[in-house]
Fold:
Amino acid sequence: MNGNRLCCAAALVLLASALAVGFEKPAASSAPLRYSLTLVLSRGDRITETTVEDDRVEWKLPKRRLEDFRRSGIVIDEEHRTTTQARAVVVAATAHQASLHGSASLETLDIPRNLRTTVQSPFSMMIDAGNTRAAGRSYSLQEAAMVQLPPEPLPIGHSWTTRETVLTTLGSGEATLTHTLVSAGKLLKIRVHGGGAITGVEYKLPKLLPGSMSIDGFAWYDPSSKLITRERYAIDNRLLKPDGAETIGFEEKLEVAVDTRLLRQPSP
Structure:
C-alpha cells in the first residue's frame, strides 16, 4: 500500500514538472520600449496655443541706494504678466516641414504701474518635424526648451542635449539644455533642465556681463496628436556683480505655462 502511494506521488511530481515545462511562459524581451517624439502636421490642421508668463525683475543695489530710488518713486521690483493667445492653420505640409499662418494677441499687465496693454499681430512660420523653425528667428529661453526633438526613438530614462542661441530679458547668450524622457502613458513626460551664460550687450549693461541663465521644468508630448501639448518652466536669469559686501545688478524670475491644442482636419 505504502509502495503504491510512493509510486503515485513520484508520478504526480513528474507529471507536474512536465506540465510546468510545457506551459512555461516565454522569457520577456530585454529590449526596452522606445518612443518617438516627432511633430506631424497636415494641411488644414488648426492649432491654438495659450501662453501665460509671470516675469519678475528685481534690481540688486546696496540698501542705501535702493532706498534713495524708492523714495524718488522709481520702481525697483518689476513684474509683468503676459497672456498670449495664438491661432494658426497649416497652409502647406510635407513629411519634413509645415507652413503655418496665424495671428497672436498679447495682453500684458504691468503690475507696479497698473497698466494694461494689448497687441495683436499676424505671423507666418515654417516648422520642421524636429520642432525647429526656419533660420533667421531667435528664440527666447522658454521657446528653445523643446527645439530640436531627438531624431531617433528613445527609451524611458534616456536624454538628449541641445544648444541654442537665445535672447533673455537681460541679454543674449547660448543655452545648453538636457532633455530626459521620464515617463510614458497617455502623454510622454520630458524633463528640461539647463542654462548658460548671458554675454550679449543688447541692453547696454557691459559692466555686468557675463551673466547666467537657467531653466527647469517639464514638457508633455501627445503621441496621438504628435504634438507638444503642455509645458511648464521656471527660469532664473542673473546679471550680478559684487559691490563690497553687497551685490549690484538684476535678477529675473520667470514662470511660464504653455498649453497647445490641435484640431485635425479629417481625412477625405
Observations:
- The helical segments are 2-22, 63-71, 141-144.
- Confidence is low (pLDDT under 50) at residues 1-27.
- The first strand starts at residue 34 and ends at 35.
